[in-house]
Each structure stands twice: as C-alpha cells, then as structure tokens.
C-alpha cells in the first residue's frame, strides 16, 4: 500500500541531469503524491475496513489490534526512510513496498480470505507495485504477498464465510477506488509536469546550442569542440607540444589603409580574413588570432595527425592561401582597388608551450615559445607572395613539396644561424603536369586549378576561353588592317 510514482527528479536522464534538475525543481513542476501521504491514505482506508468488518461480525474481534498497526505503520515507515541508514538506499521505495506486500498479505490471511476486502487490499498493493517498480516489482510484490497469505491462512484458518456484509464490501470497494483515483490524479499531474519540463528542457537546450554556436565564433572550432564535448577543462594549464606555426600578413596594407575609408577597409579586411579562415579550417589548422592584417595559425593541437602530416598540412594551407589571394586580388581590382596586395608567410616547426594563458576569469588559448618568434620573423623577411619555412619544416615536407634554399638568418633566442627555405610548389604540380596555372596582365587575369574543376565547369570554361580567343584574334586582325 504505497504512494504514486517516483519523484520526477529520479526520472531525469544522465544526458541532461543539470538542465532537467533545474527545470524540475522550478515551481511549474508538480511533485508526485509523497510516499508518506500515499501510505497513510491506504492504511487508513484499511483500518476503516477492519473496524466496519469487526462491527458487522465479518472479522474476528481480535482483528481490532490490526487497526493500531495500520495507523502507526505509515509513521514508522516515514521515520525509517528519512532518519535512518535506509534513506541512503537507492531502491528504498521498492524495498518498503515489498514490506507493505508482506503486511498486506498478513492482513488478508488474518481475515481468512474474505473475498471483497481481500481483493481490495490486494488491488491497492498491485497498483502501487506497477506504478512504482513496473512489472518486476509487481511480480516480486505478488510473490511475497502470496507467500504471506498462505502462511497466515495456515495459522488462522479460513473465515466462516468468504462473503462480507454489504457495508463492509461497499467500504472496501470505495476505499480501493479512492486510493486508485487519487494516485492516478497525481500520476496525471506528473505526466503533465513531465511534458512541460520536457518542453522547457528542449527549449533551453536549443537556446544553449544557439548560444554555444555564437560563442564558438570567438574560438577556433577545434578548441570549441574539445571544450563542449568535455575533452578539455577550461582552466589555466599548458603543455609542451611540437607544433607547426604559421604567420602571414598583407604587404601593402598600410599604404592601402591610408587611401581607403575605414568602412571600406573593414569590409575588405573581413573578406580577406573570411577567405583565409576557410582555407585554414579546410586543412585542419587551429586559428590562434587575427591581429591587424596578420593571421596566426598552428597545427598539432588540440588534435594532431603526426609531426610530418601537421607540417605538410600547414605548408599546403600556405600554398592554397597564396593561390586564393590571387583570386581575391582580382576581385578587389574589379571593385576599384588598384593597390597590389600580396600575402607573405612564414612557417616554423618545433616545440612550443600551448594551452590557456591569462587569468581565471579571462583566459586565452594560445602558444608561446621561440618557434613562434621564428615563424613571425620568417614572415617579416618574406617577399610578397613568398612562403619561408624553417629547416625542420623543410625536412618534414621536402619529399612532397619543392623548396629553394634561401641561406641562413640569425634569430634572437637561437644560438646558431637558422637555415631557411622558400616554398615553390607541390612536386606533383611541377612541370607540364601542374594543376594550377596563372597569367595576369592589365585587363586580363587567369587562375586555373584543374583539380577543382568539374566536367560541366570544364566545358563552360573552354567555351569562355574560345570566345575570348576569337575576340582577341578579331581585334588583332583589325589592328593589322
């Protein structure tokens, strides 16, 4: 003889514990009927059935002692589950229900299996078992109840008549109906509260996702993902890792900033950063920061494909950025920007300190170390359109990328001169089999990357080139005439 279903807090899933707990603890969520109230209702109804049954002669006189037990037990059970070691039991409700089944079975055996009162008590117990513990608890409860009924029935013996007086039967039926209706009402209220809580959880989940995506704009996607998946804690900590570090800036940007209005300059710079960021993310780079017209990217953290692959991805990104810059430069020229903007880049590979730097309430995920300084120095020494790499980077990529020896430089923090190399292109793209071609004159620009062209685009490009060639031949014929 137990209460309605378990508290909604125990039904929250592990995937949304904190969010569900916050919602379910709000005033909107309606709690289920407490165990104490449910047990008190059931045992009070049973006590009333005993009193009426004794007065009508259906039960033996000594059964009145059971009334005292029925009225006292709910309070004892409440104290046991709240003030003793039993409160720490994760399945205390099922255990207490099993005890109720034993008590109920004893009562049914003591009254000699009189039909309607016995069925009334059994129904209340089975209903509670299904609601609280499902089929498993129902089967366990029925088994304990049946065993207790048989034990007490063997001791007390059968009643003189298995039929009870009308008033006793009516009271038993009414008590059972009242208990089931009250319990069902609380269960219905719980279901409504659960649906409302589910809606709130979904709404807050969507808001959290939207907010996390907004916040992700301020972090590199790899860092953001490692934080939101729980792989990385947001705390001040660093580690030593071998990374490939990339720096770039725009040659001629200072002169351009003096010629353009701030709004137009901002639009141009954002267009440049957006294009370069897409290239960096395509190769798996972690974008560290944008400073003025400079970009800092590193490879090897938070995820790494190995030193050789990280260095190759970094240099491949730089080559792709150089190609992409030519395409953007042509677009800017069509918009009236005639200043020739060129990108220059520097790459270094070595051990750096990477992690969260700053204060507990404001930190920055970045890298420090002499390799960072070397990459920055290489970038400042590079000519427009040039990619300079350190010797260690060269040693990791030389089998797949053609480089040219540029001599040695002296860098603060390094005891010996540093050999540097200029990146020419992928070895696979060298010679007649190269996939990228460029040709640029005043009034004409062509940038061809055959690896990225589909069959349909190829036909369209061939048609455009043929039209352009016919136009040039006609103008040449007219010039001769």
UniProtKB/TrEMBL annotation:
<feature type="transmembrane region" description="Helical">
    <location>
        <begin position="64"/>
        <end position="81"/>
    </location>
</feature>
<protein>
    <submittedName>
        <fullName>Adenylate cyclase, class 3</fullName>
    </submittedName>
</protein>
<dbReference type="InterPro" id="IPR001054">
    <property type="entry name" value="A/G_cyclase"/>
</dbReference>
<feature type="transmembrane region" description="Helical">
    <location>
        <begin position="102"/>
        <end position="132"/>
    </location>
</feature>
<keyword id="KW-1133">Transmembrane helix</keyword>
<dbReference type="Pfam" id="PF05230">
    <property type="entry name" value="MASE2"/>
</dbReference>
<dbReference type="Pfam" id="PF00211">
    <property type="entry name" value="Guanylate_cyc"/>
</dbReference>
<keyword id="KW-0472">Membrane</keyword>
<dbReference type="GO" id="GO:0035556">
    <property type="term" value="P:intracellular signal transduction"/>
</dbReference>
<dbReference type="GO" id="GO:0006171">
    <property type="term" value="P:cAMP biosynthetic process"/>
</dbReference>
<feature type="domain" description="Guanylate cyclase">
    <location>
        <begin position="244"/>
        <end position="379"/>
    </location>
</feature>
<keyword id="KW-0812">Transmembrane</keyword>
<dbReference type="InterPro" id="IPR007894">
    <property type="entry name" value="MASE2"/>
</dbReference>
<feature type="transmembrane region" description="Helical">
    <location>
        <begin position="138"/>
        <end position="159"/>
    </location>
</feature>
<dbReference type="InterPro" id="IPR029787">
    <property type="entry name" value="Nucleotide_cyclase"/>
</dbReference>
<dbReference type="GO" id="GO:0004016">
    <property type="term" value="F:adenylate cyclase activity"/>
</dbReference>
<dbReference type="InterPro" id="IPR050697">
    <property type="entry name" value="Adenylyl/Guanylyl_Cyclase_3/4"/>
</dbReference>
<feature type="transmembrane region" description="Helical">
    <location>
        <begin position="40"/>
        <end position="58"/>
    </location>
</feature>
<feature type="transmembrane region" description="Helical">
    <location>
        <begin position="166"/>
        <end position="186"/>
    </location>
</feature>
